Amino acid sequence: MIDNQRKPAIRYAEFNDAWEQRKLSEIASVRTGFPFSSEEFEENGDYLVITNSNVKDKSATVDGSIGNHISISNDDIIFDYLLDIDDILVTMDGTVGRTARVVENRQILAQRVGRITADIDSGFLFQWLNTGDFSSNMVELSHGGTIKHISLDEIGSYKSTIPNSSEEQYAIGMMFLDIDNLITLHQREYDKALNIKKAMLEKMFPKNGEDRPEIRFAGFTDAWEQRELSDVSDIVRGASPRPIKDPKWFDEGSEVGWLRISDVTEQDGRIKFLEQRISEAGQEKTRVLYEPHLLLSIAATVGKPVINYVETGVHDGFLIFLNPKFDQEFMFQWFEMFRPKWQQFGQSGSQVNLNSDLVKNTKIMLPNIEEQSQIGEFFKNIDNFITLHQRELKKLKNMKKALLEKMFVQG
C-alpha cells in the first residue's frame, strides 16, 4: 500500500510518518462489568451502576442522571469493576456500538457494557472510535433475534489505522477534547435557556382559573381579560393546489416560497427561508402572505406556532391569523405555552389533525397590548439566545465531523 494512503489528509506539521493498522485488542484491554442483581440497587447508594442506558452515542461522558445506585462492601468487586477516569465504554446489547468516555469517579460497571482501557492516549482512542465506522462495524458483527448482541472478542477485533507516535496521538486527542468541551459548554447553555423559557412560560401566563400571572413586569397590575381566539383575529385555513405533486404548481424562479412542515421543524417556527417556490399558477390555488403573519400548524406537527418572515404560500395544514388584535410575538409565545394542550385535542386518523373550529373557540387570557408587547419581546430575546447556542452547536458538530474525516486514516 502506498504510504500516503496511510496518512491523514490533515495533520500537525511536525508529524510525517505513515500510520499503521492495528486491532483494538492490541492497543487496549477490553472487559465487561459485574452481573449485579436489581435487588442490590438502592436510592442513596455510594456508586452509580453504569448500564447500557447510561451510554449515549459518541458522548464525552456517560449519563449520570439516569440509572441505579449501589453500596458495596466487597473490596474485590470495587477493585475489579470501579471505572477509572478516561475509560471508554461501549454498549454490547440492543443498540450496539454506542460509546462514551468516563469523566467522573464513583461509577461501577455492570455486565454487558464493554470497558476499554487504553494502552495508548485515551483521548485519541476515544476519537478513533468515533470516526464513523466503529459503530457500524459493531452492528454488522452483532447477532441475535429482537435484541442484538456483540462479544468482547468482536469489540477487540475492530481494526483501524493509528499513528505510532504517542505525541501525535496526544496532540490529536487534546484538540478534539477542546472541541468537545466547547460543544458541552454550548449544550449546557442551550439546555439552561430552554429550561428558563419553560419555567417562565409557566409563570408569566395565568394558570387555569386565574386572571393574573405569577410574574409580570412592573407597572402592570390589571386583571387579564378572557377572550376567544376568534374574537381577536380572523382565522382562515391555508389552501393547497391539487394534486400537490404536480410540477406545474412550483417554479424555482418564483419569489414566493411554499411552506412545508419540514421547514417549520428545521427553523423552529420562525420562517426566514423557503427552499421550495410556488409558481404563479400555484399561487392562485393557495393563500399567499406578503408580510409576517402568525400561523398555527393543524396537521402532522400539531399546534406548532409559526411566523413567516418571507413571502409565503400557505397550504391547508396551517391556520392563518389575519387582522390580529394582539401582539404577534406575544401570541406566538402563548401558542408555545399552550402547545401540549393542542396535541391533546388532535383528532387521530392516518395522522393527527386539529379542528379549525376548536381553535377558533379556544379561550385565552389577554393583558393590554402594552403588556403583551413586553412579554413578547422578553421571550423573543430568550429565543434569540437559544438560537445562538443552537447554531454554535451545529457549527461545532459539523466542524468536528469534518475534522474526524480528515485527521484520521479511514480503514
Could you outline the blueprint of secondary structure elements for this entry?
Elements: E1 20-23, H1 24-27, E2 28-31, E3 47-50, E4 68-70, H2 75-81, E5 88-91, E6 99-101, E7 107-109, E8 113-118, H3 122-128, H4 133-141, H5 152-156, E9 159-162, H6 166-203, E10 225-228, E11 234-237, E12 257-258, H7 261-267, E13 270-271, H8 280-283, E14 287-289, E15 294-297, E16 305-308, E17 312-314, E18 318-322, H9 328-345, H10 356-360, E19 363-366, H11 369-407
Outline the biggest β-sheet. Answer: 5 strands, mixed
Annotated CATH architecture of the largest domain: Alpha-Beta Complex
CATH class of the largest domain: Alpha Beta
Strand content: 15-25%
- The amount of helix comes to 25-40%
Low-confidence stretches: none
Radius of gyration: 27 Å
Please, how many domains?
A: 3
The coarse overall form would be globular
Structural class: alpha+beta
Number of helices: 11
Order of helices and strands: EHEEEHEEEEHHHEHEEEHEHEEEEEHHEH
Q: Based on DSSP secondary structure assignment, what is the total number of beta strands?
A: 19
Mean pLDDT: 92
As laid out across the biggest beta sheet, the strand order is 11-18-15-16-13
CATH superfamily of the largest domain: DNA methylase specificity domains
Q: What's the N-to-C terminus distance?
A: 13 Å
CATH topology term of the largest domain: Adenine-n6-DNA-methyltransferase TaqI, Chain A, domain 2
